[in-house]
Write a structure and sequence with these properties.
This is MT21C methyltransferase. Keywords: Methyltransferase, S-adenosyl-L-methionine, Transferase. It comes from Podargus strigoides. GO terms for molecular function: methyltransferase activity. This protein has a single domain, classed as 3-Layer(aba) Sandwich (Rossmann fold), CATH 3.40.50. It is 27% helix and 27% strand. The protein contains six helices and eleven strands. Strands 1, 2, 5, 6, 7, 8, 9, 10 and 11 form a nine-stranded mixed sheet that branches. Helix 1 runs parallel beside helix 2 and helix 2 packs parallel to helix 3. The longest helix is centred in the C-terminal third of the chain and has 13 residues.
């Protein structure tokens, strides 16, 4: 079940003026840094969705509550990389993951926006939800302080592997932060399953965009 009353927030349009107009580049301002994101219309994963804006904004504004400095952070379904870039700027050791076909654009955005900064060098890796987890991310080696996910739940057929992936990476001591635009009944069905597995709190709601930001931790026996 969900506990606590969420904060009601608006997604702030943290755009900065563009020097020139490209249909495929968006400029954002988070944590004092201009971030330029190249989008691709060919893949759903290569577009900035509202959940990414909501989580980026929340991480920037709540650094005392969620201090990412020197923490190990995994983003699943990283898409364009905006959230991973913000986590890097906030001082985290970031591993950004997504499907193979999205990795070129993801790598480009992350390297472009972090290359000249004094921060931990981020890593970009392939992660197909529910597949080869123990081989590619063995528990003995990989433990994350934070797992981040934005707009990973929508009309697709891999909701069960997604939930299994969240369970796999969310160990005792891990905080999972998941921001999602809720559109369909299947989104709420996933949320119900999610709440049955994890200790969950809705941290914030963004009613204008139907985004909820949820914190989850593993239930310890």
């Amino acid at each position: 079940s969900l506990t606590d009353s969420p904060v009601i927030l608006k997604i702030l349009q943290n755009w900065v003026p563009r020097v020139s107009h490209y249909f495929d580049k968006d400029h954002y301002l988070y944590a004092g840094h201009q971030i330029v994101i190249q989008e691709s219309i060919e893949h759903l994963g290569a577009v900035v969705w509202p959940g990414a804006l909501a989580l980026s904004q929340y991480l920037e504004s709540n650094q005392e509550q969620f201090n990412l400095k020197d923490k190990r952070v995994l983003e699943i379904g990283a898409g364009t990389g905006l959230v991973s870039i913000v986590a890097c700027i906030l001082g985290a050791y970031v591993t950004a993951t997504d499907l193979p076909e999205v990795l070129d654009n993801l790598s480009y955005n992350i390297s472009k926006n972090t290359q000249n900064m004094n921060m931990h060098k981020p890593e970009v890796r392939k992660l197909v939800w529910g597949e080869d987890l123990t081989e590619d991310f063995p528990v003995s080696t990989y433990h994350y302080d934070f797992v981040l996910a934005t707009d990973v739940v929508y009309h697709h057929t891999v909701l069960d592997p997604l939930l299994a992936t969240m369970v796999y990476f969310c160990k005792p001591g891990t905080v999972l932060l998941w921001a999602n635009k809720f559109r369909f009944s299947t989104d709420y069905e996933f949320l119900e399953k999610f709440c049955n597995i994890f200790n969950t709190t809705i941290l914030a709601e963004f009613p204008e965009s139907n985004v909820k930001l949820i914190k989850a931790t593993v239930r310890e026996n």
